[in-house]
Each structure stands twice: as structure tokens, then as C-alpha cells.
Write a structure and sequence with these properties.
This protein has about 230 residues and is of the alpha/beta class. The protein contains 9 helices and 10 strands. It has one domain: Rossmann fold, CATH 3.40.50.300. Helix 3 runs parallel beside helix 5.
Length: about 230
Amino acid sequence: MLKVAGLTVSYGSFQAVREIAFEVRSGELVVLLGANGAGKTTIFRALSGLTPPDRGSRIEWAGRDLSALSPRAIVDAGLSHCPEGRKLFPALSVGTNLRLGAYRCPEKAEIERRLARVLELFPLSSRMNDPAGALSGGQQQMVSIGRALMAEPKILILDEPSVSLAPKVVAQVLEAVAAINRAGTMVLLSEQNAYAALQIAHRGYVLESGRIVLDGPAAQLMQHDEVRRAYMGA
């Protein structure tokens, strides 16, 4: 289980998130909802070791405090972060981008096994030798998620995977995320597309101005008046 307690992250004197507490239980897909600037990316950067949290924050994974570990050690512990904006190497091939996700794995046969799993999930086989920058936005997002999966994570952290994608592609990407979860990987997902995210999630948390203001089962949040007004246009 991933358990976050008292998570505060500051940039100078500005507190981007304050006293955040949430958890992702075994087998769950959990969504963080919030507008731009709510603190979702800051939380994910703290979880993956890219941004150090303030003193007193605790990020517990399987009973171990991750808050002072390096990003490499956090990947080794079983957390894999797929960032917003894809962050691919556009001049490198799709195959190379994917294999870079398994850089901590020393066995070639194991890397190829993981790659085969990714290619079962995403239709990228015919594009393996193409530069990643030549792909459509949806295909690039698939490569980005696939690269994170190449680390064979126990929990996958996805930051806004549907941003700037066409509705049909959003559905395809989020169905793949749900399939990853059904196959046994815990998922922590941040999304502005509340309706689509809550359809595949078990539970959710709503962030406003760096604080959690609402949480509950996904079906319950989907019917909540404030969530419907703020994120579904209802």
C-alpha cells in the first residue's frame, strides 16, 4: 500500500501542497482530480523523488519511508512515474525509448519479455524503428506509458495521460490504464477529465489550491454536485 501523510512541498516561501494525506491500496486504481495548478504534478514529483518534500512529510510504501530516497531507489522499490507531457526522446526510435524504461534491468531476455507485454497492450509494433517524435500525440502517450511499464512497477503513477488527446484516443488510453490495473498493477492517476477517470477508478480525491477537499468512492464522486459542476460541466 502507498500511504501519504502530512505531505507538504514548498518552492521557496510558496507551499504548493499542504498537509496532503491519501492512500492507494493493493489492487486499486485511484484518481486525483483538480484543475491546473491544484498541486497534482507537485505531489507526483514528490512521490518519485524529483522534488523533495518539506520536513515532516511521510511517503510510505510497503512500510518503508520513501521521502528521502533518490529517484533511482524509488524505481527500484516499485514505483514508476509517467510524467505529464510525455517527455520522450523525439529523435530516438520508439523501441529505444521503450527499452530505456528498463535501464535498471541487466538481462536482455527479461527486457524483451517486458517489451512484448507493452506491445500486447499498445499497437506500436509497426512503429518500433520510427523516431518517437514522428508519432501522433496518442501514440506518443502510449510510448510514454509503455516506457514506465518497462520498469515492471508495482504501482504506476500517471500524470494527465489524456491531455491534448482526441476523445477517441482518450478512451483508448484510459482503457489501457484500466487493463494495466486489472492485470495487477496499482495505479495512481491524475486527471482533469473527471468523467472518464472516475469511470475506471475505484476511488478518488479532489484537490483545490494544494489541499484535498473531497474524497470517496468513484461512483459517489461522479454524483457529487460540486464535482459535477467543477469538472463535468453539469
